[in-house]
Amino acid sequence: MRDQDRLKAFEKMLTDVQTNYEELVSRLDRLKAEGREKSATFRQYLGNKMTCQYLLNMYKDYGLIEKQ
After folding, report:
1. Which of 24, 32, 40, 66 could join 49 via S-S bond, C-beta 3.0 to 4.6 A?
2. Using CA atoms, how far apart are residues 6 and 4, in angstroms rounded to an integer?
3. What is the pTM of this model?
4. Cβ(28)–Cβ(49) under 8 Å?
5. What is the widest separation between alpha-carbon atoms in the chain?
6. How many CB atoms lie within 10 A of CB 51?
């Protein structure tokens, strides 16, 4: 794979992770408002959110995106 293709793939992955993270936060907020913090769906979304958060933190730690 060429460097340019790798960079495009990285950028796409980063965008997807950021988008997924925002969607998961929104879904979790909605479920929380409904009082469904103990549901399997909430727990699954929470696990997925934590995975996205971990990836974003790794990008920050390596200086690939800015720390906020």
Report:
1. 24
2. 5
3. 0.87
4. yes
5. 49
6. 14
